[in-house]
Write a structure and sequence with these properties.
The protein is of the alpha+beta class. It has helices at residues 2-18, 38-57, 80-90, 95-117, 123-144, 148-158, 167-175, 181-220, 224-240, 254-258, 263-277, 282-289; strands at 21-25, 29-33, 59-63, 71-75, 241-243, 248-249. A hairpin with a 3-residue loop joins strand 1 (21-25) and strand 2 (29-33).
C-alpha cells in the first residue's frame, strides 16, 4: 500500500512540475494533457462568456395570434431553476429525487471505501476464496466427523455467499474440526461475506444512481447552465489536449470540436483531461477498474439447499465508460 501511494505521489509531482501527462491513443498517437496557463485560461473565459451571452439571448419563435405579428419570442434555453419548478409542478421531478441523488452519490463513495479497507481485489477473488475454503473444509471436517452428511450440509450452509453463516452450523464445524486452523477459515468466510455484500450493495447503488442521473440529465439538458457547462468542457479540451509531437490541438477550431460526430473521441478527451486535473493516477485508475459491473444483477442471497455458482460473474457486462465514475472538472460558469 505504501509503495503504491509513493508511486502515485511521484506521478502527480512529476506531472505537476512538467504541467503535462503524456498518453498513447491507439489511433491519435501520442497525446499531451496540461493545465491551462493564465493566457489559456483567459481565452477559455472569453469563449465561455460569449457563449453564455448567446445562450441567454437566443430566442425561439412560436405562433401567437394575440401578438402583433402573430409570433411570440421565448427564451430558447431556460434556467435550471425555472425548469425545476416546471417539472415539480408537472410531477416529472422532485426535491426528494434531488436528495436521493445526493444520497446515492455519497453511498457510492462510502461503499467503495469500505471495499478498499476490506482488501477487495475483484469479484473473482471472492468466489475463488469461498471455493477454496469450502474444499478445505470438505476435506478436513467431513473426514474427521462421524456424521459426514451433517458435516457436508453444514459446510455448504456456511459457504453460501450473501447470507449470514448459521451459528449452529459454525458450531458443528468447529466441534468436528481436526485443528484450530478451522477458526481462521471461519473468520475468512465472514470477511468474504462482507466483501460480497458490500460489492452487491455497490452494484445496486450504482444501478439506482445511473438511472436517476440519466433521468435528471434528460430533463435538464436543455437548461442554459447545462449547455454552458458542456461548452466549457469543450473549451477546456480544445486548449488543454493536444498532439504531443506537433504541439497542436486535436481539432482545428472550437467549432470543429463542437460539431465532431466522433463522440467516442470527444468523450475520451473529456475523461482523460478530467482524470489528469483531478490527480487520478494510473494506480487509482486500476483500483476504479476493479469495480466492473452492470446495472442488471441479482443481489439476493443464494439458497443453502444448493451449492452457489461462484464461477458465474456478478456482472453480465462491463461498467460503462469512465465518464460514469469520474466527474469532469469545469469552471464555475453556470451562475446567473
Amino acid at each position: 500500500m505504501t509503495t503504491d501511494k509513493t508511486l502515485s505521489d511521484n506521478q502527480i509531482l512529476q506531472e505537476i512540475s512538467k504541467n503535462e501527462r503524456i498518453l498513447e491513443h491507439p489511433s491519435l498517437g501520442k497525446i499531451r494533457l496540461r493545465f491551462p496557463t493564465l493566457e489559456i485560461q483567459r481565452k477559455i473565459d472569453n469563449l465561455v462568456r460569449t457563449k453564455k451571452k448567446i445562450l441567454k439571448e437566443t430566442k425561439d419563435e412560436i405562433p401567437d395570434p394575440s401578438a402583433p405579428n402573430g409570433i411570440k419570442y421565448i427564451p430558447a434555453y431556460k434556467s435550471r431553476e425555472v425548469l425545476l419548478k416546471e417539472y415539480i409542478d408537472l410531477g416529472w421531478w422532485s426535491k426528494e429525487q434531488e436528495e436521493k441523488l445526493d444520497e446515492l452519490s455519497r453511498n457510492q463513495i462510502l461503499l467503495m471505501a469500505e471495499l478498499e479497507l476490506l482488501g477487495f481485489e475483484d469479484e473473482n477473488h471472492i468466489y475463488a476464496g469461498i471455493n477454496e475454503i469450502r474444499e478445505t473444509l470438505l476435506k478436513t471436517v467431513v473426514e474427521n466427523a462421524e456424521d459426514k452428511e451433517r458435516a457436508r450440509t453444514s459446510i455448504v450452509n456456511v459457504t453460501v455467499l450473501g447470507s449470514a453463516p448459521p451459528e449452529e452450523d459454525i458450531k458443528f464445524i468447529k466441534e468436528n474440526a481436526p485443528s484450530t486452523d478451522t477458526d481462521e477459515l471461519i473468520n475468512n468466510i465472514f470477511i468474504l461475506n462482507r466483501l460480497f455484500n458490500a460489492y452487491s450493495k455497490l452494484a445496486q447503488n450504482y444501478s439506482e444512481l445511473i438511472k436517476l442521473q440519466a433521468e435528471q440529465s434528460s430533463l435538464f439538458a436543455d437548461s442554459w447552465q447545462e449547455q454552458l457547462q458542456y461548452f466549457t468542457r469543450l473549451a477546456q479540451v480544445y486548449y488543454c489536449v493536444e498532439l504531443a509531437d506537433e504541439k497542436a490541438p486535436l481539432w482545428s477550431s472550437i467549432l470543429e470540436l463542437e460539431e465532431d460526430p466522433n463522440s467516442e473521441k470527444v468523450m475520451w478527451a473529456f475523461n482523460e483531461l478530467a482524470m489528469f486535473w483531478q490527480g487520478i493516477t494510473d494506480d487509482t485508475r486500476e483500483k476504479v477498474n476493479k469495480y466492473s459491473f452492470t446495472v442488471r444483477r441479482n443481489t439476493e442471497p443464494q439458497h443453502s439447499e444448493e451449492l452457489p455458482e461462484e464461477t458465474k460473474s456478478l456482472n453480465d457486462g462491463n461498467l460503462q465508460d469512465n465518464e460514469q465514475i469520474v466527474s469532469s472538472v469545469v469552471l464555475d460558469t453556470t451562475k446567473t
